[in-house]
# Entry
Amino acid sequence: MANRTAFVSDIHSNLEALRAVLQDIDERKCTEIICLGDVVGYGPDPRACVKIATKFTHTILGNHEEAALFVPAWFNPKAKLAVEWTREQINSDQDDGTTSEDIWNFLGDLKSTARRGDMLFVHGSPRQPTTEYIRALDVRYDREKIDEIFSMIDRLCFVGHSHLPGIVTPNYRYLVPSKIGGAVRLGKDKAVINVGSVGQPRDGDQRACYAILEDEVLRWHRVEYDYEQTAAKILRATGLPDGNGERLRKGR
# Structure
């Protein structure tokens, strides 16, 4: 069987979305799962999501893991509240089959980049692995930034962070899945691929998003899940902003 790699990112403590995506990944018989960061943050189930992430083939450090471990620099007030709440949950004494020490050790061991052949895995961008966004506006208005990013990759760079699935090309195009049939064949040319967000999509589609790479074809997949259940958990969680649940309903 050909190697079939699933790429997930920005789970953001959304257990319902993660379980739905993992079921879809299992049904599609993927051979490995690579996570591009932000397992935690925003959502109500950080411990359970981290426990699952320990079984992935590889997980990259995201800015929310970095914030939980160190200082939530550049975070807005609501995002900082979620970081503080996440820390409290990790440090809580819960009978869930894992320990706070196990979780912190796993998060603390995460690396900000990884390479496999001519593929680079980061959360944000090659220039600033955990914090820099690569957006459609950059392609249009900041070509110097795009040029520098492409100078730092051998061929393919897989990212998350913006929660917006798409592919950036060296000739300054940003292609979204809905405009290219949900898939793209990758050739010898360089490309930056955003795999989308499992736990907090921001492209107006509430469904969880992830991608599969097989035989040089990259395909994005959307998976329905019970976002109302996740939103209800957020509303019940003292310390998490209610808006973190509302945005799941809007896909924003």
